[in-house]
Design goal:
Radius of gyration: 20 Å
Order of helices and strands: HHEHEHEHEHEEEEEHEEHEEEHHEH
CATH class of the largest domain: Alpha Beta
Strand order of the largest sheet: 1-9-8-5-4-2-3
CATH architecture of the largest domain: 3-Layer(aba) Sandwich
Helix content: 25-40%
Distance between the termini: 22 Å
Bound molecules: pyridoxal-5'-phosphate
CATH superfamily of the largest domain: Type I PLP-dependent aspartate aminotransferase-like (Major domain)
Number of strands: 15
Number of domains: 2
Oligomer: single chain
Largest sheet: 7 strands, mixed
Strand content: 15-25%
Shape: globular
Length: 367
Amino acid sequence: MISLNAPQIGEEEVKAVVKVLRSGVLTAGLGAGPTVTEFEKAYAGFVKAKHAVAMNMGTGALHSALAAAGVERGDEVILPSFTFVATAETVVMIGARPIFVDIDPETYNISLSDVEKAITEKTKAIMPVDLYGLPADVQHIREIADKHGLLIIEDAAQAHGATCIGKPAGAFADAACWSFYASKNMTTGEGGMLTTNNDEIAEKARLIRTHGEKKKYTSIMLGHNYRMTEIQAAIGLVQLKKLPGFVAKRRRNAGRLSEKLRKVKSLQLPAEPKGYKHSWYLYTVRLKNAKENRRNKIIERLKEQGVASEAYYATPIHLMPYYRKFGKHRLPETEKAAKQVFSLPVHPGVTPKKIDFIAETVQHLLK
Ligand SMILES: Cc1ncc(COP(=O)(O)O)c(C=O)c1O
Protein backbone atom coordinates (compact mmCIF):
# COMPACT_ATOMS: atom_id res chain seq x y z
CA MET A 1 0.00 0.00 0.00
CA ILE A 2 1.36 3.45 -0.87
CA SER A 3 0.66 5.31 2.36
CA LEU A 4 -0.81 8.82 2.42
CA ASN A 5 1.96 10.07 4.67
CA ALA A 6 4.94 8.42 6.32
CA PRO A 7 7.55 9.72 8.77
CA GLN A 8 10.91 10.17 7.02
CA ILE A 9 13.31 9.04 9.74
CA GLY A 10 16.97 8.23 9.11
CA GLU A 11 20.14 7.34 11.02
CA GLU A 12 20.73 11.01 11.95
CA GLU A 13 17.51 11.12 13.99
CA VAL A 14 18.39 7.78 15.64
CA LYS A 15 21.84 9.10 16.60
CA ALA A 16 20.41 12.37 17.91
CA VAL A 17 17.93 10.51 20.14
CA VAL A 18 20.61 8.14 21.48
CA LYS A 19 22.81 11.15 22.29
CA VAL A 20 20.02 12.71 24.35
CA LEU A 21 19.24 9.41 26.10
CA ARG A 22 22.91 9.04 27.03
CA SER A 23 23.11 12.64 28.28
CA GLY A 24 20.70 11.93 31.14
CA VAL A 25 18.78 15.18 30.47
CA LEU A 26 15.43 14.07 29.06
CA THR A 27 13.33 17.13 29.80
CA ALA A 28 13.34 20.32 31.84
CA GLY A 29 11.64 20.85 35.17
CA LEU A 30 10.77 24.39 34.21
CA GLY A 31 10.29 25.44 30.59
CA ALA A 32 12.86 24.23 28.11
CA GLY A 33 15.99 22.05 28.20
CA PRO A 34 19.09 22.86 26.11
CA THR A 35 18.01 20.85 23.04
CA VAL A 36 14.50 22.33 23.15
CA THR A 37 16.00 25.83 23.34
CA GLU A 38 18.23 25.08 20.35
CA PHE A 39 15.22 23.74 18.40
CA GLU A 40 13.19 26.84 19.27
CA LYS A 41 15.96 29.12 17.98
CA ALA A 42 16.30 27.13 14.78
CA TYR A 43 12.52 27.07 14.18
CA ALA A 44 12.13 30.79 14.88
CA GLY A 45 14.88 31.41 12.32
CA PHE A 46 13.17 29.16 9.79
CA VAL A 47 9.80 30.96 9.99
CA LYS A 48 11.43 34.38 10.58
CA ALA A 49 9.58 34.89 13.89
CA LYS A 50 10.93 36.71 16.94
CA HIS A 51 9.89 33.89 19.30
CA ALA A 52 9.28 30.17 19.07
CA VAL A 53 7.86 28.25 22.04
CA ALA A 54 8.09 24.46 21.71
CA MET A 55 5.20 22.34 23.00
CA ASN A 56 4.50 18.63 23.25
CA MET A 57 1.66 18.86 20.69
CA GLY A 58 0.14 21.26 18.19
CA THR A 59 -3.17 21.22 20.06
CA GLY A 60 -1.34 22.51 23.15
CA ALA A 61 0.25 25.24 21.05
CA LEU A 62 -3.21 26.36 19.84
CA HIS A 63 -4.66 26.25 23.35
CA SER A 64 -1.70 28.20 24.76
CA ALA A 65 -1.86 30.77 21.95
CA LEU A 66 -5.53 31.53 22.61
CA ALA A 67 -4.94 31.78 26.36
CA ALA A 68 -1.74 33.83 26.01
CA ALA A 69 -3.44 36.24 23.59
CA GLY A 70 -6.22 36.83 26.13
CA VAL A 71 -9.17 34.99 24.56
CA GLU A 72 -11.61 34.31 27.40
CA ARG A 73 -14.88 32.71 28.39
CA GLY A 74 -17.76 34.36 26.53
CA ASP A 75 -15.63 35.59 23.61
CA GLU A 76 -16.40 34.51 20.05
CA VAL A 77 -13.73 33.08 17.77
CA ILE A 78 -14.25 32.83 14.00
CA LEU A 79 -12.84 29.73 12.31
CA PRO A 80 -13.51 27.31 9.49
CA SER A 81 -15.46 24.11 10.10
CA PHE A 82 -13.51 22.38 7.34
CA THR A 83 -10.42 21.53 9.42
CA PHE A 84 -9.11 19.02 11.94
CA VAL A 85 -11.16 19.11 15.13
CA ALA A 86 -8.27 20.44 17.26
CA THR A 87 -8.77 23.95 15.87
CA ALA A 88 -12.29 24.15 17.33
CA GLU A 89 -11.52 22.04 20.38
CA THR A 90 -9.05 24.59 21.73
CA VAL A 91 -11.59 27.42 21.37
CA VAL A 92 -14.05 25.42 23.49
CA MET A 93 -11.29 24.54 26.00
CA ILE A 94 -10.82 28.29 26.57
CA GLY A 95 -14.56 28.69 27.16
CA ALA A 96 -15.04 30.78 24.03
CA ARG A 97 -17.71 30.15 21.40
CA PRO A 98 -16.64 28.78 18.01
CA ILE A 99 -18.29 30.64 15.12
CA PHE A 100 -17.85 28.49 12.04
CA VAL A 101 -17.67 30.17 8.65
CA ASP A 102 -17.59 28.84 5.10
CA ILE A 103 -14.65 28.20 2.80
CA ASP A 104 -13.51 29.25 -0.64
CA PRO A 105 -14.34 26.33 -2.98
CA GLU A 106 -11.00 26.57 -4.85
CA THR A 107 -8.52 26.82 -1.96
CA TYR A 108 -10.70 25.19 0.78
CA ASN A 109 -9.48 27.95 3.11
CA ILE A 110 -11.65 30.33 5.14
CA SER A 111 -13.75 32.74 3.03
CA LEU A 112 -12.87 36.38 3.74
CA SER A 113 -16.35 37.75 3.02
CA ASP A 114 -17.84 35.20 5.42
CA VAL A 115 -15.33 36.20 8.10
CA GLU A 116 -16.45 39.85 7.83
CA LYS A 117 -20.13 38.87 8.03
CA ALA A 118 -19.55 36.80 11.19
CA ILE A 119 -17.96 39.62 13.24
CA THR A 120 -20.00 40.79 16.25
CA GLU A 121 -19.12 42.87 19.33
CA LYS A 122 -18.19 39.60 21.07
CA THR A 123 -15.62 38.56 18.45
CA LYS A 124 -12.12 38.42 19.89
CA ALA A 125 -10.11 36.42 17.38
CA ILE A 126 -9.99 34.85 13.93
CA MET A 127 -8.37 31.43 13.46
CA PRO A 128 -7.47 30.86 9.82
CA VAL A 129 -6.25 27.34 9.00
CA ASP A 130 -3.64 26.69 6.27
CA LEU A 131 -5.55 23.67 5.06
CA TYR A 132 -3.58 20.84 3.42
CA GLY A 133 -0.52 23.14 3.64
CA LEU A 134 -1.81 26.04 1.50
CA PRO A 135 -1.62 29.27 3.54
CA ALA A 136 -4.95 31.00 4.08
CA ASP A 137 -5.15 34.61 2.86
CA VAL A 138 -3.92 35.88 6.22
CA GLN A 139 -2.45 39.00 4.63
CA HIS A 140 -6.00 40.25 3.93
CA ILE A 141 -7.49 38.71 7.09
CA ARG A 142 -4.95 40.95 8.87
CA GLU A 143 -6.63 44.02 7.33
CA ILE A 144 -10.06 42.83 8.53
CA ALA A 145 -8.68 42.03 11.99
CA ASP A 146 -6.99 45.42 12.32
CA LYS A 147 -10.16 47.23 11.22
CA HIS A 148 -12.12 45.52 14.01
CA GLY A 149 -9.36 45.23 16.65
CA LEU A 150 -9.22 41.42 16.50
CA LEU A 151 -6.45 38.89 17.07
CA ILE A 152 -5.30 36.31 14.53
CA ILE A 153 -4.24 32.89 15.77
CA GLU A 154 -3.20 30.95 12.68
CA ASP A 155 -3.43 27.17 12.62
CA ALA A 156 -0.32 26.42 10.58
CA ALA A 157 -0.22 22.78 11.74
CA GLN A 158 -0.03 21.55 8.13
CA ALA A 159 2.02 24.34 6.58
CA HIS A 160 5.72 23.71 7.33
CA GLY A 161 7.66 25.13 4.41
CA ALA A 162 4.68 27.01 2.89
CA THR A 163 4.94 30.70 2.02
CA CYS A 164 2.68 33.56 0.99
CA ILE A 165 4.16 36.53 -0.95
CA GLY A 166 7.57 35.23 0.01
CA LYS A 167 6.82 35.16 3.75
CA PRO A 168 6.57 31.93 5.73
CA ALA A 169 3.07 30.86 6.85
CA GLY A 170 2.27 32.55 10.14
CA ALA A 171 3.94 35.86 9.25
CA PHE A 172 0.74 37.96 9.36
CA ALA A 173 -0.75 36.39 12.50
CA ASP A 174 -0.39 37.41 16.14
CA ALA A 175 0.62 33.81 16.78
CA ALA A 176 0.97 30.75 14.56
CA CYS A 177 0.75 27.16 15.76
CA TRP A 178 2.51 24.19 14.21
CA SER A 179 2.21 20.43 14.68
CA PHE A 180 4.99 17.85 14.51
CA TYR A 181 2.63 14.87 14.63
CA ALA A 182 4.01 11.76 12.87
CA SER A 183 2.18 12.40 9.58
CA LYS A 184 3.35 15.99 9.18
CA ASN A 185 5.95 17.36 6.73
CA MET A 186 8.42 17.25 9.63
CA THR A 187 7.86 15.28 12.81
CA THR A 188 8.97 14.77 16.39
CA GLY A 189 6.50 11.88 16.89
CA GLU A 190 4.14 14.18 18.75
CA GLY A 191 5.02 17.83 19.19
CA GLY A 192 4.14 21.41 18.43
CA MET A 193 5.44 24.97 18.24
CA LEU A 194 3.98 28.42 18.80
CA THR A 195 5.66 31.24 16.88
CA THR A 196 5.00 34.93 17.42
CA ASN A 197 6.56 38.39 17.13
CA ASN A 198 4.63 39.48 20.23
CA ASP A 199 6.77 39.49 23.42
CA GLU A 200 3.79 39.24 25.76
CA ILE A 201 2.21 36.27 23.95
CA ALA A 202 5.58 34.48 23.96
CA GLU A 203 6.15 35.16 27.66
CA LYS A 204 2.66 33.95 28.62
CA ALA A 205 2.87 30.88 26.37
CA ARG A 206 6.13 29.92 28.10
CA LEU A 207 4.37 30.20 31.47
CA ILE A 208 1.30 28.23 30.31
CA ARG A 209 3.58 25.49 28.97
CA THR A 210 4.78 24.74 32.46
CA HIS A 211 1.87 25.12 34.91
CA GLY A 212 1.99 28.93 34.93
CA GLU A 213 5.26 28.75 36.89
CA LYS A 214 7.86 31.47 36.57
CA LYS A 215 9.63 30.07 39.60
CA LYS A 216 9.35 26.39 40.48
CA TYR A 217 6.18 25.55 42.44
CA THR A 218 4.91 29.14 42.28
CA SER A 219 2.21 29.49 39.64
CA ILE A 220 1.35 33.04 38.64
CA MET A 221 -1.31 32.02 36.11
CA LEU A 222 -3.32 29.00 35.05
CA GLY A 223 -1.13 26.66 33.07
CA HIS A 224 -0.71 23.14 31.81
CA ASN A 225 2.04 20.66 31.12
CA TYR A 226 2.81 21.28 27.46
CA ARG A 227 6.58 20.84 27.75
CA MET A 228 8.45 19.29 24.83
CA THR A 229 10.99 16.62 25.75
CA GLU A 230 14.66 16.79 24.81
CA ILE A 231 14.13 13.62 22.77
CA GLN A 232 11.44 15.28 20.65
CA ALA A 233 13.60 18.38 20.14
CA ALA A 234 16.60 16.29 19.07
CA ILE A 235 14.48 14.68 16.34
CA GLY A 236 13.02 18.08 15.43
CA LEU A 237 16.45 19.67 14.89
CA VAL A 238 17.40 16.99 12.36
CA GLN A 239 13.97 17.06 10.69
CA LEU A 240 14.06 20.85 10.34
CA LYS A 241 17.35 20.60 8.44
CA LYS A 242 15.79 18.05 6.11
CA LEU A 243 12.48 19.92 5.72
CA PRO A 244 13.40 21.93 2.56
CA GLY A 245 14.39 18.66 0.86
CA PHE A 246 11.16 16.98 2.00
CA VAL A 247 9.03 19.86 0.69
CA ALA A 248 10.95 19.88 -2.63
CA LYS A 249 10.13 16.19 -3.11
CA ARG A 250 6.47 16.76 -2.24
CA ARG A 251 6.42 19.63 -4.76
CA ARG A 252 7.98 17.42 -7.45
CA ASN A 253 5.41 14.69 -6.73
CA ALA A 254 2.47 17.09 -6.63
CA GLY A 255 3.58 18.67 -9.93
CA ARG A 256 3.93 15.29 -11.62
CA LEU A 257 0.56 14.11 -10.32
CA SER A 258 -1.19 17.29 -11.49
CA GLU A 259 0.45 16.97 -14.90
CA LYS A 260 -0.93 13.43 -15.27
CA LEU A 261 -4.38 14.15 -13.84
CA ARG A 262 -4.96 17.36 -15.79
CA LYS A 263 -6.90 15.50 -18.48
CA VAL A 264 -9.34 13.92 -16.03
CA LYS A 265 -12.29 16.25 -16.55
CA SER A 266 -14.24 15.06 -13.49
CA LEU A 267 -11.47 16.17 -11.10
CA GLN A 268 -10.76 19.58 -9.60
CA LEU A 269 -7.02 19.63 -8.95
CA PRO A 270 -5.51 21.40 -5.92
CA ALA A 271 -4.86 25.11 -6.35
CA GLU A 272 -1.61 26.96 -5.67
CA PRO A 273 -2.63 30.60 -6.25
CA LYS A 274 -0.07 33.09 -7.59
CA GLY A 275 2.25 34.29 -4.84
CA TYR A 276 1.69 31.19 -2.68
CA LYS A 277 3.92 28.19 -2.09
CA HIS A 278 2.01 25.11 -0.94
CA SER A 279 3.66 22.75 1.58
CA TRP A 280 1.85 19.82 -0.11
CA TYR A 281 1.14 18.16 3.24
CA LEU A 282 -1.98 16.77 1.54
CA TYR A 283 -2.57 16.59 -2.19
CA THR A 284 -6.35 16.86 -2.34
CA VAL A 285 -8.57 16.53 -5.39
CA ARG A 286 -12.32 17.02 -5.72
CA LEU A 287 -14.66 14.76 -7.61
CA LYS A 288 -16.77 17.46 -9.26
CA ASN A 289 -20.55 17.15 -9.16
CA ALA A 290 -20.30 13.79 -7.36
CA LYS A 291 -22.39 12.45 -4.49
CA GLU A 292 -20.64 11.35 -1.29
CA ASN A 293 -21.23 7.65 -2.06
CA ARG A 294 -19.38 7.82 -5.33
CA ARG A 295 -16.42 9.59 -3.70
CA ASN A 296 -16.34 6.99 -0.92
CA LYS A 297 -16.39 4.17 -3.48
CA ILE A 298 -13.41 5.71 -5.30
CA ILE A 299 -11.48 5.85 -2.02
CA GLU A 300 -12.29 2.17 -1.38
CA ARG A 301 -11.28 1.15 -4.89
CA LEU A 302 -8.01 3.09 -4.60
CA LYS A 303 -7.20 1.24 -1.39
CA GLU A 304 -7.97 -2.09 -3.07
CA GLN A 305 -5.43 -1.15 -5.76
CA GLY A 306 -2.78 -0.32 -3.14
CA VAL A 307 -3.15 3.48 -3.05
CA ALA A 308 -4.05 4.94 0.36
CA SER A 309 -6.65 7.69 0.16
CA GLU A 310 -8.77 9.53 2.70
CA ALA A 311 -11.38 12.29 2.78
CA TYR A 312 -10.03 15.19 4.80
CA TYR A 313 -12.49 16.06 6.27
CA ALA A 314 -15.59 13.96 5.62
CA THR A 315 -17.45 15.39 8.64
CA PRO A 316 -17.13 19.16 9.04
CA ILE A 317 -16.84 20.12 12.71
CA HIS A 318 -20.20 21.95 12.90
CA LEU A 319 -21.91 18.64 12.01
CA MET A 320 -20.06 16.55 14.62
CA PRO A 321 -22.29 15.36 17.48
CA TYR A 322 -20.48 17.34 20.19
CA TYR A 323 -20.22 20.57 18.18
CA ARG A 324 -23.86 20.78 17.05
CA LYS A 325 -24.68 22.53 20.32
CA PHE A 326 -22.81 25.64 19.15
CA GLY A 327 -25.69 26.48 16.85
CA LYS A 328 -26.87 25.89 13.33
CA HIS A 329 -24.36 27.06 10.76
CA ARG A 330 -25.17 27.42 7.06
CA LEU A 331 -21.97 26.36 5.33
CA PRO A 332 -22.86 25.07 1.84
CA GLU A 333 -19.32 25.13 0.36
CA THR A 334 -17.94 23.29 3.40
CA GLU A 335 -20.62 20.61 3.26
CA LYS A 336 -20.19 20.17 -0.49
CA ALA A 337 -16.37 19.87 -0.28
CA ALA A 338 -16.64 17.39 2.61
CA LYS A 339 -18.59 15.06 0.30
CA GLN A 340 -16.34 15.41 -2.75
CA VAL A 341 -12.66 15.67 -1.72
CA PHE A 342 -10.10 12.92 -1.36
CA SER A 343 -6.34 13.03 -0.82
CA LEU A 344 -3.59 11.13 -2.65
CA PRO A 345 -0.02 10.28 -1.55
CA VAL A 346 2.77 12.73 -2.48
CA HIS A 347 5.08 12.34 0.56
CA PRO A 348 8.87 12.23 0.02
CA GLY A 349 8.93 8.41 0.09
CA VAL A 350 6.72 8.22 -3.03
CA THR A 351 8.89 7.71 -6.13
CA PRO A 352 8.02 9.22 -9.54
CA LYS A 353 7.19 5.68 -10.69
CA LYS A 354 4.67 5.33 -7.88
CA ILE A 355 3.19 8.74 -8.75
CA ASP A 356 2.63 7.44 -12.27
CA PHE A 357 0.93 4.35 -10.84
CA ILE A 358 -1.32 6.51 -8.63
CA ALA A 359 -2.25 8.69 -11.62
CA GLU A 360 -2.99 5.67 -13.83
CA THR A 361 -5.11 4.07 -11.10
CA VAL A 362 -7.15 7.26 -10.62
CA GLN A 363 -7.58 7.70 -14.38
CA HIS A 364 -8.72 4.12 -14.77
CA LEU A 365 -11.23 4.37 -11.92
CA LEU A 366 -12.71 7.61 -13.25
CA LYS A 367 -12.97 6.52 -16.88
C1 LIG B 1 -5.16 21.59 11.12
C2 LIG B 1 -4.62 20.96 12.37
N1 LIG B 1 -4.77 21.61 13.53
C3 LIG B 1 -4.31 21.12 14.69
C4 LIG B 1 -3.66 19.89 14.73
C5 LIG B 1 -3.26 19.37 16.07
O1 LIG B 1 -1.91 19.06 16.17
P1 LIG B 1 -1.42 17.87 17.13
O2 LIG B 1 -1.92 16.59 16.57
O3 LIG B 1 0.07 17.99 17.09
O4 LIG B 1 -1.96 18.15 18.50
C6 LIG B 1 -3.45 19.19 13.54
C7 LIG B 1 -2.70 17.93 13.46
O5 LIG B 1 -2.92 16.87 13.89
C8 LIG B 1 -3.96 19.72 12.33
O6 LIG B 1 -3.82 19.06 11.17
